[in-house]
Design brief:
By secondary structure, this protein is an alpha+beta fold. It is about 50% helix and about 15% strand. Strands 1-3-2 form a 3-stranded antiparallel sheet.
């Protein structure tokens, strides 16, 4: 079994889809739909059968405006 280093100073661990949805203030079913729509570019990582997220990547995605732009297009169709 190999050893790995854990960065205890950087609290940017992966969180679940449910936790990510709570973090950005939406329902998990909405976030799951955004992941399936490739134009949204949601910063999600598939680990086995589960989707995982980093808070810092979600923050960057939201602050970049990509989340609002892509979802506005979807709502106007």
């Amino acid at each position: 079994m190999g050893w790995f280093l854990v960065d205890t100073q950087n609290n940017d661990n992966y969180i679940s889809l449910e936790d990510a949805a709570k973090y950005i203030g939406i329902r998990s079913v909405t976030l799951r739909g955004w992941i399936k729509n490739s134009s949204n570019e949601v910063p999600a990582h598939k680990v086995g059968r589960l989707w995982k997220f980093k808070r810092s990547e979600l923050d960057e995605w939201i602050n970049s405006g990509k989340s609002a732009i892509n979802n506005d297009r979807k709502n106007n169709q």
